[in-house]
Amino acid sequence: MRLHPPSVVIFSGSSNIPLARQICDHLDMPLSPMYIEHFSDGEIYCRPEIHVRGKEVFVVQSTNGGSDNLMELLIMLDSLKRASAEKITVVVPYFGYSRQDRKTKSREPITAKLVANLIQIAGATRFISIDLHAGQIQGFFDIPSDNLTAALIFKNYLLPKNIPKPIVVSPDMGGVARAKILSKMLNCEVAICQKNRIQKDKVDSMHLIGDVKDKTAILIDDIVSTGGTMCLASELLTQKGAKEVYACVAHGLLVGDCIKNINKSAFKEVIVTNSVTISEETLESCKRLTVLSVAPLISETIYRVCMNMSLSEVFEQTNEPTLFEDHQLRQQEI
Ligand code: R5P
After folding, report:
1. Do the domains 8-149+294-315 and 151-292 sit in the same CATH topology, yes or no?
2. The ligand 1 atom nearest the CA atom of 256
3. Ligand 1 centroid – CA 223 distance (Å)
4. Given this model, what pLDDT does residue 196 score?
5. Tens digit of each residue's pLDDT (9 = 90 or more) over 6-32
6. pLDDT at residue number 5
7. What is the pLDDT of residues 70-110, one digit of tens each?
8. Judging by DSSP bridges, how do beta strands 56-60 and 8-12 pair with one another?
9. Fold adopted by 151-292
10. Contact in structure between 270 and 287 (CB atoms under 8 Å)
11. Residue in 307, 319, 234 with CA at minimum distance from that of residue 270
12. Domain residues of the chain, as ranges?
């Protein structure tokens, strides 16, 4: 059964239009036009080009890269709220500013909470994201919020490779829960790296807890930014006797020397999703980089939200075809 485009509409900001198009293709509905313009001084103007009064609206926008994508999202939400959309779900595949999610020193900000507040005040009535930096960020929202996991996508990609003796590795203590999810899916053990930072975005040293000798290590993390964490972890795992090292990372920010670092590293393959746009040029310059789409996961979630269906089945989903396709088939059979 298709969603009903006149009453359900999907808009996209400019952060990741290819992903928004893929989501719409999966749902077999159009991407509705949002007019976005920058004034000469850099201020942003957004206006939906169709009317939204009384509609169920979804807005797809990752908030990576400084503040323009975030500001654009807030302005889109304000325009939709003032235009009387009935429900506004923000789909933020990559939720930026999420790494500052608690105070580790006095006088530090908690930007994840600040951004959650801004999104709600701007008009969102539901929030959907993928692999939030910490699961408890869901609680920063007082509206329904769902934290999807890319582990499903990684599992479906890795299983057919029949990787010999796999072991899932978390590159830090904060990622252990995420590593456990993938290890359960791949039916293997978990090892943990303990990382020490000298600066906010520079890792100093790492220690390994667990045995990776003669195994294939599969590192899993939420973000690869400069690649410092992942590359240091891959060196450590190789030193400790891992035969091959893969990386699975939900959000490929790939900033600074990240691609250079990956090209110099011992990784067999670095697998990221398209939660953040990855250019053809980047893909060309890094043959070990694989990009998997989160569109099936997001479209399935949108479908279920609109149909008031359970989302836990998406989180627990293990088989292809996706439940969304399966549900469509069942509908056709009836
Ligand atoms: C930090 O806690 C995150 O989970 C990532 O490990 C980190 O953001 C990766 O950053 P980078 O690639 O710059 O080391």
Report:
1. yes
2. 13
3. 5
4. 79
5. 799 999 999 999 999 999 999 999 999
6. 67
7. 999 999 999 999 999 999 999 999 999 999 999 999 999 99
8. parallel
9. Rossmann fold (3.40.50)
10. no
11. 234
12. 8-149+294-315, 151-292
Clarify whether 195 is annotated catalytic: yes
From 134, 218, 232, 138, select the one nearest 184 (Cα to Cα): 218
Please enumerate in sequence order all residues whose Cβ is within 8 A of that of 255, keeping only pairs 6 or more positions apart, or say none.
225, 226
Query: Which is the catalytic residue, given 55, 87, 103, 195?
Result: 195
Pair of tokens at residue 184: 């359960």
Which residues of the chain fall short of a pLDDT of 50?
318-321, 327-334
Class of domain 8-149+294-315: alpha beta
Atom of ligand 1 nearest to the CA of 171: 6
Is the entire prediction scored with pTM above 0.90?
Answer: yes
CA dihedral 228, 223, 112, 308 (to 10 degrees): -170
Take residue 58 and report the two structure tokens written for it.
């979804």
Peptide linkage before 30 cis (omega within 30 of 0): no
